[in-house]
């Protein structure tokens, strides 16, 4: 199994250069049945990542470009009157696919945002009194420009919580960038890439992630981390129980991705920044000396592994 | 290496704690100092409002020079208690202006602790001690705030931390207080100027001297009785005896009059009165006691006037037991004393002499005394705190013209009249009356109870007390003065026993407060070598020398610290998990090789780091880590077997590591 996962990472790595860690996080997120939020500037490869992930996993992929005039029906679908049968016929929207890339989600109005976010939570949509199930696996990758850019509707905290992880891609390092400049067009490479896994196999892997063992000692450590976030003066609120579950699920996926059947403290530490950075707000009045990443680093270095 | 600037929050804390530390000094420092310091506080407050608000350096320098110049102008020196404390207060407030960084802030904080202590140079009441304790908590909390500058935990967290720290220090403080070897002297060695404002009997008397003293409500001494409390008319507390006069001022006279006298001076008649006196510092040698003192518990000299003199001026509160007899006789008068007791000023007024001669005319001594007292009683004499001023011949003017006076006037005139009639007489100053405190069961005598009376020598009984004031204002002996409303020249009013629930409630509260003050004086401030010896004797340590006390001290503190250590040790969760135990042993051993496991480091990261640092160890470290991980984080089928395996490997490894360590590794070139 690990061989397949390594192969997937390897293939993705050929397109997204120098971002091994982020690729693994994205894959772990998918294996943990969570949705992924990518926060970064335009042009660092967010769309490419989503697209290549879909291709490698042989999943159906749709992209929705969020704009300020986007309507819920543009995401979910619409019923159209069929003159031949004399009835309304529902046309699936782009949300009906395995991997949905919601590009620049913070450019759309809250109404359009919530249409997608509801689908993420329930894995189904209710429209015109009918409930329609979404295909499995269902994985949303949303991208977001940093909130201080003009003309955005930042996602509220409750909706941010629906994303299992939030990652930043960041600029490639000099060597990776040189390879990028020297190499072929990404689009051509994407076309050449071959699927490594079927949808059924992916579901099988997801089921195995659930079986990864988390010992009492590990749960102790996880609770110590949650406890720290709740008693630290640095955050407005501590981590919620849902955040605790998200941490455990992500750590399991991460362990599985590394070929282990049990979670180690190192797994928690590896996924911690991606899982909690969008869930913790710095407390008001806090001098903005440390970035979120530095805060989380401090959290790791404060809570002992026993 | 510059510290980052402090946050506004920390600096506001600093302002508040410094302000609170300086606050009590506002009562005894000159007004301009208070204004100066408050101004600087406001200036500091202004700099907090925005980062661009700064105080230019030259202004700080100018203020510093102005402050120092002000102190010099006020006191003429920078040394001594008042000048020194004023300078400290001013400089602390100025240092605040510079407190932008943690280093300066800490300096301000430590100076604040010192400024708080300087309060004890001025007052030592329990109230100020309580305030100082509270302030010390605030200052310590400020230290915590400054240290955790970027933290924003709420204020009560810091205050709780400071409170906990101080409470933890309390037992050690008590042990040190009780058992630290004491030296003779007050808790605080005071510079000379500290005794400047002390009030009390001066050892000389001129018209107006006692009425001025009476305006002070300060405590003179407290007395507790082992038997019944003497009746009000017997409450005469003997102080300086004055023999010599120049017509206006009375003094103790020749040195011989203060020389030691024999015990035979006094022949007790009735039952003794046992009392214990706690005398406030008054900067003179007299030890006050109920008239007449017969024996005293501390080294002191008895004079021919039956005064008791301490070897040195009383500059701290002292405690002594006295045996007095209110009923007594004294012996013969030797020629030297008789001459002193009949001394008259050279320019004695003729009218006075004639009046005395007139009474004398064949009358007995007792008849002359009665006539003199009747004269005071029948002529329109008025007893007042604010008599008109007397010029050339004070006693003449008083007796025949103004006829308004306070006890010193009546006593001085009476003694002059007696001496003119050939009866040996002298002036005794001291206190009369006092307020009984039923809560603490002691008598409080204030400066306002100061009094002067006369003693005449009669051949059959010896020295006998005569109080001419009683002839004018008999109430004086029964009641205290009411000082609240005194118009110029008005007769004295007396404080009668007030009725009413409110006033009796207030009186009760006042008694309780003074009792608290008294216990504080007895047990805290007067805790000197004597008290310490008593206490140690009560605890079974007879003849405690300082070596024994240091041993007890060290022993008690060690026991206390060991207790805390034991508590901390036992409180730690007991590690019963053998897997963790073995793992900790292994980590310790690696730590001794310089590869400490960081507390937050997971087992796999740790073993990778070790392997990267010492590749030759990887073959032993990796299997140990693997087994540990399986035992602790996995769900192994055979945990017992794995544990044995782990223990064996760790034992082997630690043994090997030890052997390896003995010959230090040679550098591989």
Structure keywords:
heterodimer, A: 306 residues, alpha/beta, Rossmann fold, Helicase, Ruva Protein, domain 3, 5-stranded parallel beta sheet, 47% helix, globular, B: 669 residues, alpha+beta, 6-stranded antiparallel beta sheet, 5-stranded antiparallel beta sheet, 22 helices, 22 strands, disordered C terminus
Average of the residue pLDDT scores of chain A: 84
Spans of chain A of at least 5 consecutive residues whose pLDDT stays below 50 are none
Main CATH class of the largest domain in chain A: Alpha Beta
Tally of separate helices of chain A: 13
Characterize the largest beta sheet of chain B: strand count, sense, and whether it forms a barrel: 6 strands, antiparallel
Q: Tell me about the largest β-sheet of chain A.
A: 5 strands, parallel
Mean pLDDT of chain B: 82
Name the overall outline of chain B.
Answer: elongated
Identify the strand order in the major beta sheet of chain B.
9-12-7-2-18-17
Helix percentage of chain B = 40-55%
| Percent range of helical residues of chain A | 40-55%
- Total helical segments of chain B: 22
Q: Briefly note the structural class of the backbone of chain B.
A: alpha+beta
Give me the Rg of chain A, rounded. 20 Å
- Major sheet of chain A: order of its strands? 2-5-8-1-9
* Number of E-state strands of chain A: 9
What is the total domain count of chain A? 2
Low-confidence stretches of chain B: 661-669
| CATH fold call of the largest domain in chain A | Rossmann fold
